[in-house]
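Notebook entry, structure prediction.
Reason for the run: the old model in the group folder had no record of what sequence produced it. Starting over properly, with the input documented here first.
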Amino acid sequence: MFGKKEKEFDTEQVRKLLHDLRASQHAAKLNAEAIALLAKKMKSESGERIQKHAALLTRDMEKFRSELEKLSALVKGK
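New structure, fully documented this time:
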């Protein structure tokens, strides 16, 4: 009303964003796995702690990926 337009849901723009988010998630997961491998070579208490945190990060990234896939399904259904 009075010149204000509701913004439309741009499915293509959201799909591009999802693609970029998936790429970032994948890169972060690969880096967490690389950190875990390097930490394993440390053979120390610090290395063990780093491995634990890298495993937690990897798990969180998998959860994030799962949520991205749910969002993607919603967008495809629109």
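Summary: The longest helix spans residues 45-77.
The old model has been moved to the deprecated folder.
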